[in-house]
Every structure is written in C-alpha cells, then in structure tokens.
C-alpha cells in the first residue's frame, strides 16, 4: 500500500514539476527569449510584465482616456489608442508590446502593411475571434482557408455593380429608419437566438418561393441564395458544395451587424463632421440638388457625386469603422528586413496610419476632402495608407454596398434638411465593435 501511495506521489510531483516548467516557459522564458530576439533586429518596446504583459497599462490608459470628453477636433487617436499613440512617440512606429505573454508587433509602414494584407504565400492568418464576436456573427469575415474561398466565391456575385443597382429600391425604402441607432436596433444586436430563428424562417420561406419560381432576387438575401443554388447546381449537388442554411444564417447575421453597423456609423460621423464644417455641407447639398433636384436618387446619379464621395472618403480616413486590424504569423517568415517566428501578432493600427503626418501631410488631423479630389490612389500616392475596409484579398466584400447605402442616405438627408450639432453634443469617439460617439450624436435637423 505504501509503495502504491509513493508511486502516486512521485507521479503527482513529476506532473506538477512538468506543469510548472511549462508555465514558467510560457509566462517568462519564451517572452524574454522573444524580446531578446526582436531587440537584436532593432525592435524594442515597453518592458514585459509577468502574466499580464502590457495589458494593465493598456486598460488603465484606455479607461483614463474615455473618462472625459475631448475638444471638438479630429485629433482622436490619443483617445482611441492611448497606449499605442504614446508608445510610438517613445519607440517609433515599429515596436513590440505584450498582450499577456503574446508578442504584438506594431506595423505602420505602408509597404509592410501591403505585404501582410496581400498574404501572397499564406503566411499570415486572422487572430482567433473572441466569444462575443462568435455570438454576434461568424461568417465570411472569420473563416480561413478553403471555407473562406468557398463562401467568398458564392457571396461575391451579390455585390457586383449590377446587383447593387437592382437593390437600390430596397436602399431607398429603408433609409428613413434603418441607419438610426435606436434602442430597438441596439436591442436587436443583443438577441442571438431570436435572430437565428427569424432568419431560418425567412430563408426557408424564400427557398420554397424560389424553387416554385415565385420569389424575386432583387435584395441581398435573394441574390445570395440564387448564387448558392447556382453553385450547388453546377457542382452536381455534391455534398461539400454550396452553403447550408446555417451557413446562410451566419452570413446574413454578418451582413446585418457588419453592414448596418458600418453604414450607420459612417453616416453618423459624416453628419457630425459636416455639422463641424458647414461649408462642406453646403457644397455637398449643392451637388446633390444639381444631380437629382428633388427627385429620388438613382444609381447613375449616385456614381456622379464627386464631392459627396470625397467627403465620405475623408470621414473614413478620420473616423474609420474599425481602428485596428490584427494578423498572426503561421510560420517563420521574412517581413521586410525582419525575420519573425510563428505566433507573433501583427497590429495594423488603421487610426494611427490614417492620421500619420508623414503619410498625409501637416494637415493630417484636419478635415480636408480636397485631398481625395483626384481619387484614392492619388491621395495615397499608391501606398497602403488608406484601408478603412481592409485591403488585399480579404478586403471587405461589402465595401461598395456600404458606400452606396451611405450615399443614398446622405443624399436624401441633404435634399430635405440642413443640420447642426446640438449644444448638448459631447465629442467622445470610442469603440464597441465599430468607432462611434460614446454619448450619442445630438444633431438638430432643420426642414428645408
């Protein structure tokens, strides 16, 4: 009996010793080795703290930045990414910080951003989604490898220009209420099971109607399902082709959360910015009335709104929907002059790049739509310094969709109202999924 107990004790102690060594290696030895490895290549950063890395400083600085509003200006990066903004000033644009024991490399060089987002050799992947993201929506944005390729192929036709043109009546019908961030819309985002059930019923009804030839495909769901049926039919009804109903549900949820959230926040920020710069509101309204008069906006006319497009691009530069992209190295790779091992997170801080004076000039923090008067390529000098919807093969598939919706909504508002900031408006940009006003957007609309 004593021998058995002794054996159990020895095994237990061995397991504890192994676990302790692995934990020490994970929490201290590996980070220290990585820090030394990167420093040899000229990359430095804040010191690593056991277990937390730099998380305590990041959270503390974020809380402090959000605790009070800021002046009415576009210099918002210190409020949104205070840790990164301060660290750039100390260590330069490329530095390493620590999310727990995981190294995160800050990248702001447009050429390196191009290399990472183009991902020609499949060396860079998406960082694993958090549980909240999975609850709200997975879909195309979170998929990798073959599943991403399949879903992208099926969904892509839904966003071709001719399909967007077909959906314009639906845009017009919903622009009066869909983009307003009401309590009801916020509540909708919190409900998972009800949304899933509702979409399943909707999809099954549409599926039956399409099979009987009674359904139209002039909206996003119809076009998506039509493309899915075509994929399955062309593949001879093979099992792995096409998307299941659950897959379609996830894509619909993604389009709702990503599409509506992105478009509504873009519209809100545009109205805030045009209230701050009324001379540009006048220019935009004059263009809309010159193109459409008081008539319903049409697809061809929307494509001729040069001033409105310039304004939207400048708002996307100053207030991008997402303020950061992250990738992770899959294997040991060469990135520029660097050699990086697997499992290094790469942070691409969109907000810092979009506000970088070395890339955009001394007026980088100012609202100047004229910089986009000759298009995005000319404004960026063909660099990857403007990527509000991402870049490369994983660029947001709904980019044209979102911009068309935003143009339609803004054109309708400009036709009927002029607007200004209320005295109660507090300028406090912050992020929950997307960049939005922390205390809402109190605007006064005056009927024309």
UniProtKB/TrEMBL annotation:
<keyword id="KW-0560">Oxidoreductase</keyword>
<dbReference type="GO" id="GO:0020037">
    <property type="term" value="F:heme binding"/>
</dbReference>
<keyword id="KW-0479">Metal-binding</keyword>
<dbReference type="GO" id="GO:0016020">
    <property type="term" value="C:membrane"/>
</dbReference>
<keyword id="KW-0349">Heme</keyword>
<dbReference type="InterPro" id="IPR017972">
    <property type="entry name" value="Cyt_P450_CS"/>
</dbReference>
<keyword id="KW-0408">Iron</keyword>
<dbReference type="GO" id="GO:0044550">
    <property type="term" value="P:secondary metabolite biosynthetic process"/>
</dbReference>
<dbReference type="InterPro" id="IPR001128">
    <property type="entry name" value="Cyt_P450"/>
</dbReference>
<dbReference type="InterPro" id="IPR002403">
    <property type="entry name" value="Cyt_P450_E_grp-IV"/>
</dbReference>
<dbReference type="InterPro" id="IPR036396">
    <property type="entry name" value="Cyt_P450_sf"/>
</dbReference>
<keyword id="KW-0472">Membrane</keyword>
<keyword id="KW-0812">Transmembrane</keyword>
<keyword id="KW-1133">Transmembrane helix</keyword>
<feature type="binding site" description="axial binding residue">
    <location>
        <position position="396"/>
    </location>
    <ligand>
        <name>heme</name>
    </ligand>
</feature>
<dbReference type="GO" id="GO:0005506">
    <property type="term" value="F:iron ion binding"/>
</dbReference>
<dbReference type="GO" id="GO:0004497">
    <property type="term" value="F:monooxygenase activity"/>
</dbReference>
<dbReference type="Pfam" id="PF00067">
    <property type="entry name" value="p450"/>
</dbReference>
<protein>
    <submittedName>
        <fullName>Cytochrome p450</fullName>
    </submittedName>
</protein>
<keyword id="KW-0503">Monooxygenase</keyword>
<comment type="similarity">
    <text>Belongs to the cytochrome P450 family.</text>
</comment>
<dbReference type="GO" id="GO:0016705">
    <property type="term" value="F:oxidoreductase activity, acting on paired donors, with incorporation or reduction of molecular oxygen"/>
</dbReference>
<dbReference type="InterPro" id="IPR050665">
    <property type="entry name" value="Cytochrome_P450_Monooxygen"/>
</dbReference>
